[in-house]
Amino acid sequence: MRTNLILSAELAGGVLAQAQLFNGKLLPGQNNGAIDANRLPKTSAQIQPLTGTDTLDRYVGNAGANGGPLTAPSFGVQGPVSVGGNNIGTIKFEYGAFTGHFPGDAADSDGGMVIRGGFTFNNQWKLAPNHELRWLQYYRETGGQARTTVDGDPLYANHALAGVSSLFYDAPVDAFANAQVPTAIDFEAALVCYDAAKPKELHAVGSFLWGYDIDKANKTITDEYALIFTAPLTVTFKNTFATEFGAAGTEDTGWTIDENNAAACFMMIPEPVSSLAFAALCLGLALTARRRWRP
Q1: What is each CA distance from 272 to 125, 162, 231, 282, in whole angstroms?
Q2: pLDDT band at 279 (very low <50, low <70, confident <90, very high)
Q3: With the CA atoms of 202, 208, 213 and 214 taken in that order, what torsion angle do they form, in degrees rounded to the nearest 10?
Q4: Which of 33, 57, 84, 161 is the most buried (most CB within 10 A)?
Q5: Domain boundaries along the sequence of the chain
């Protein structure tokens, strides 16, 4: 993270160790029951959140920032990921709001949201040679410093977890006492691929929106949400990315992102030849060779 309001996932571990989970409203595009025009409704469906007092343990477990294993039914399953009309895998996530504090701070002086999951190939697809998958995202503050910015440089930290082809993990935290704490933060996280020989030429597979509201007076997090992963990217995403990382970028230059060329990043896995078919093939080749070389 590039701000002192949104702390890194690694620092967030100090909060999560003492966090207290509570259930907020989970309706996308709503703020305390009323439609919030500032939200970016991408789809009306939601990622199903975890419930229960063990939620945070499932996020962070005893394995640091990446957490313990992602196991059903802790996922909110969002369904298949389609590229070029082909179902190449699935996107799955879990998330929840929390309040807590860093050592030395007052109880429940900070709050935020943890989200973890990612993309997994089905057994018929894989990455094309020399290609990689990564995540990137932007966030937008309502109130606070009222900024919209890409959250990264620009690719996000490349966390790894067994069974997940491309993991995304984030744990933004805000201090309720901060004079510039926003009233809401909204994110758009995008899965992208690229040729390792051209790492600045990104191809978007799709994205999803997530975020939460901050009740500074009551020191709580409300209305946390995460929406289904779909294509294409939002206009805000593309404009923000171009401003900060495009040809005349304010953060870096020469980056591009498109929504039409991701298919080149993936390839089908050839179906294995059965042992019977392989034996028949070998016998046929042997007979052919014998006929050709018979004296």
Answers
A1: 13, 24, 32, 15
A2: low
A3: -40
A4: 161
A5: 9-270
